Amino acid sequence: MVKEMNSNRDLPLIVKQLEPSPEQEVPILSRGKDIVVSAGAGTGKTRTLVARYLDLLAEGIPLRSLVAITFTKKAAREMRNRVREEVRKYLLLDGLPEEEQDFWREVYQGLDAARISTIHSLAGDILRQHPAEMGLDPAFEQLEESDTARMKALAVEAALNWASEDKLASGLYPVFGAWKLRRILGELLDKRLDVSRALDKLPDDLWSKWEPNLVSQLKAFVEDPLVCSGLDGLTSLKYDGSIERAQEAGDLLVKDLRIVIDAWEAIKEAQLRGDWIQISRSIGLLGEHLKQKGKAENWAPAKPRPVIKEIRNIYQERIGKTDLDLAVDRALAVEIIPALSALFQYADRWYKDAKEQVNGLDFDDLEKKVLDLLNEFTGVLDYWQSQIRFLLVDEYQDTNARQRELVNLLNGKKNSLFIVGDGKQSIYRFRGADVAVFRQEQERIGREGESYTLDTSYRSHPEILDALNCLLEPVLGYRTDLPYLEPFAALHAGRVAPPVLDLPAYVEIHLAVGNKSAGADSKAAEAVAARLIEILGDKTGSGETQPLNYGDVAVLCRASNSFLAYEQAFEKAGIPFATVAGQGFYERPEVRDVLNALKVFSDPNDDLALAGLIRSPVNGFSDEFLLDLRDFQRSEKIGSLYEALREYQGYVDGDLRLELDSFVLMVEDLSGLAGKVTAAELISRFLDRTAYAAGMALARQERSVE
Hints:
CATH class of the largest domain: Alpha Beta
Shape: extended
Largest sheet: 6 strands, parallel
CATH topology of the largest domain: Rossmann fold
Helix content: 55-70%
Mean pLDDT: 84
Number of helices: 32
Radius of gyration: 35 Å
Strand order of the largest sheet: 3-2-6-7-1-8
Distance between the termini: 74 Å
CATH architecture of the largest domain: 3-Layer(aba) Sandwich
């Protein structure tokens, strides 16, 4: 069913069921120009994107002619499912004309083939349809980041091993050290396309290109008439008694001035030899000691301080900003850069070979090869431009320059591009993301197309938004002259918070001073814990209303490495909490205990896991018991700790025997289920069989007391 396009129309019913706001409706319906939507957090950008996608389908745009690009595979699945759900709901409506039902039923059935994907998946699809042009096996594998990270790590180690034996590259070890060299090489490999392009532009004899320019800068300084006359005048103070008189007066300038004079004399001697490396070192020393210390009366009638000021200004203008040191620059040009280049090229070749062995392409390969394909083969580009009628791109602030080029090539001159982004949410440099790319497209589309802003947030309460707007406006400012800065844009509340027992809503802002090294994280966490107890603590009998409990509170951190400080503060304060995720998640005692339990159920002879499980709150076995068990294992020469545990049952009695019997029986029963039920089911049965939750609570109480 092909329908006539018309931007001056009402929303179709399938889009209306999404209930877009008036500010969302305008970009949904707009046609004939490229469109950029700047959408702050919670302003409904996904709803707008899905609504435009459905609106284009309702106009009759074929499913395969629509391309929606998301940043992650998860986001692509969510968008596809959101579209599918809206179509499903629409088909359930009563009274739909048969033709309308047939149309949307066909859309529903074809959604698995819809082009809703990441930009790398799209690049892979294009390359697979034209393998011959790029000399590719169409069955190539699109490598995930976990795969490439492992390959790169192996490539780095292989290159470092090679470097230790190579005459040139081995010189990098005393300069950087192994740890820093490993980090540098890893960063170079992560940006291998840019690094390769930069290395290709370097001349073979780099020093021969550098040296004349560097020497000319040094020459301009040491031959400057004001510098020469000024330094010669300062040198004369060494011979007319001025320095001795100032030294007797204890003047602070004397020491620095002696160094300046010695450096100037060394420069003049080096000039006679043409030794510009020595000159650069002496100039650096001279620059460090051009200081205006001391008192004028200690030097009268001489006036060294104004002369020093004048020379220092010339130094800062000509030398200070470049920090010239010819010895270092020569080492860089002749030794370090060539050695780093050789090291990088070895790692890059190793990495390429590893990918070829699995017939794989990484994200950089996909971006580069698809751009090469479209730029070199105009017939291929024409084909894809005709295939794609409309392009929708989500999270545009996280794109890089190559991805922008791909999107613009596919768009051509159709004016059918629709991008959504928020510069403030950019994950800077992640996968090469550059927020400046988004800013540049905003400006271009603002001139040539249409630009819209969604600034009504449906996620946060008015009080929170008002407080944040007030706090952030003076911090972020409105500067637009720097491409990497995102100017402040206020968000307005689109929801009204339901009253909680008629209590007013309010926001507290506590400003903390300090840094991590001074324990600021811990102090901040302790302050939050104290405030939570003050707000939510037991007020029985006080006559006050307590509308909330600890389960109503969420603590959001800027980074997961702050979690530990809050966990420790809450444990110490006796505040119940659950950590949802984070870097320290798997180091939490309860998570570590459950992982040990799963390892034991999978292999009871895993001594380390069993020792951890024995010392967990499962049965409350003590350190002394574990030590006795280990001694028993050694003395009886028993192979595994689990076998020793079973033998040890016969040597104990009373409560300990009962606890041991219960523990061993649990291990036997749950070991028999390992591999037959899911891990979740196994964990559930483990928790049911033990008093783990109670034991964990007791352990926390003991730690709080300590």
